[in-house]
Every structure is written in C-alpha cells, then in structure tokens.
Amino acid sequence: MRRKAKVILLVAVALLMAGCDGVQSALAPEGLHAERSAFLFWTMAIGATAIFVALIGLTAFALLAPRRSRRWMAQQPMLFGAGVVFPVVTLSFLLVYGFVVTGAPAPGGGDARSIRIAVDGRRWWWQVTYWDEDNLPVVTANELRIPAGQTVAIELTSADVIHSFWIPKLAGKLDMIPGRVNVLTLNARGTGVMRGQCAEYCGGAHALMSFNVVVMTPEAFRAWLRQERSPAQAPANSLARQGKALFFTAGCSACHAIRGTAAANELGPDLTHVGGRTSIGAATLGVDKADFARWISDNQRIKPGNLMPDYGIFTPDQLEALASYLAGLQ
C-alpha cells in the first residue's frame, strides 16, 4: 500500500512539473515581460508556502504544547502583530513589489514603433496586419511572426466580441475590445515557435481559437515580410491549376482573399501565403495537402462552431486538386 502511494505521488509530481514547460507555459518564459511575471509568481508562491508552513507550525504548537508554554500566543501584542501588522505590511509590500516588477520598461531592444503589427480578433480566428518598410499593410492570418531581441508593439482590437490575446511564454493577457485599440509590448529573447490562445470566452469555437508565434532573427523576419507582401504564386502544376479554378467556381472567393487574384473578401482568413504558415484553422491542423483536404470537407467536426461550413460536395479528385492549390500558396 505504501509503495502504491509513493508511485501515485511521483506521478502527480511529474504531471505538475510537466505543466511548467512547453510551447504554452507561463512558467517557461521566453520574453522579458513573461520573465517578470514568472519571477513574481515564484516569489509569491515561495512566500505563501513559507507563511503556510509557519501557520501550520503555530497551530500545532497551540494544540499540543503545554499551556504554560503557549500562554504568550493569547496576549494582545501577539494577536495585534500577527493579525493586523503582519498582513498589512506583507500585502502592501507585495502590491508595491508587483507594480515595480511588472511595470518596469523593457530595457533596450530598439524602437517598438519601427515594427508595427495589428491583430484583430474574429470569430474564431485572428487577422494579423503588418506594415512594411514602405508603410504598406500586409494582411495575413492565424500566425504571428516577430523578430527576436527587438521590442514590438502589437495593436489589439476586435471585430465582433471581446477576445483576450495571450502568449504565455512572452507576456500576460490583454483584452481585445470592439471599437478600442489596446497595445501589448513584446520582446522575445530568442528564436523559436510558441503558442498563443484566446483567454476570454467568446462563444462557439473559443477553445480552439489559438495561434502560433514564430520568433525569427531580425534578418529572417525582414526577408519573410518582403516575401509575405508579394502576390500569391501561380499554380505549379495542372492539379493545382484545377484547384485554383475550383476555388472560384465553388464560391471560396466569396469569403477569402488571395492577393494577385480576383479573390478579395475578408469574411474569412487571407489565404495568399497560407501554405507557408505553420498551421490552418487557428493552430488546429498542419499545412500539408491532407490537412487542407480534411479541413475543407470536415472542419465542423475538427473545430465545432466555426463559421465555415463543411464542403462535402467535392469528389476526392476535386478535394485533392483544391488542397494541392492551397498547400502550394507559399
């Protein structure tokens, strides 16, 4: 029985420790603001644990010690000090300390205004707009790319309901409110891929309203942005050309935009370079042909409640052609 209890305890500890790492863990920070939040959390957690242990010790002493030894605990100075002075001083210190730690400006990293990015929360996906070196907008969706080591200001708003933008490894949450622009400052320490999430219940497919954050070197980011502002490339083979024709005849262009073609609507995500992203469906599936085919034909099962209907009208050959065209948009 004792051996079984030890196994259960070890499994529980392992599960708890596993939650401290990963692409969406606030306790494995990769940005300056997330590091401050994690440091504040550990400071408060350690302090709270120490106070809890001390309280348990005092309680045990009060219950088990001889009456003469614990008489001092009932005296007025002890009651006033432990019941009034200690909580007031401790909580006031933590309040001021929290403001200082989380409110300090990010050191260095360049001018945040030099890289302008806006994220617009939709049901249930993300429209992301970059402004290039010529101050021209470049629209993409469901993925955020930023340069490492530079301070970036993200303008956040919503087109419909209140969403909440959260990248646990980089910064805290910030609401996205219709008619209002809130600005979140990010500064990623190193390159890599991490995950963000809508942290405000917004109905329907809220639980699957996620996105990937790709942190790149500044040089790679500039090269990617130059590529991203270019029109969609022409289909590479006959199968993809059939898929492009099907994209328009089946009505896909009524909701989506593909720069360089007649498709220019914004009801759904921009698909100009969708094949070059890390995911589709707001970080729900990958970007190979099989993923595109699954999403087109069965997206309501994959992401229930999203605003795109299932397209079960396509034959397997048509579905392959359309998926080939979309996967080739890189």
UniProtKB/TrEMBL annotation:
It is a multi-pass membrane protein. GO terms for molecular function: copper ion binding; cytochrome-c oxidase activity; heme binding; oxidoreductase activity. GO terms for biological process: ATP synthesis coupled electron transport. GO terms for cellular component: membrane. The chain crosses the membrane at residues 38-65, 77-100. Residues 112-227 form the Cytochrome oxidase subunit II copper A binding domain. It is found in: Membrane. Residues 238-330 form the Cytochrome c domain. Keywords: Copper, Electron transport, Heme, Iron, Membrane, Metal-binding, Respiratory chain, Transmembrane, Transmembrane helix, Transport. Subunits I and II form the functional core of the enzyme complex. Electrons originating in cytochrome c are transferred via heme a and Cu(A) to the binuclear center formed by heme a3 and Cu(B). This is Cytochrome aa3 subunit 2. It comes from Methylocystis echinoides. The lineage of its organism: Bacteria, Pseudomonadati, Pseudomonadota, Alphaproteobacteria, Hyphomicrobiales.
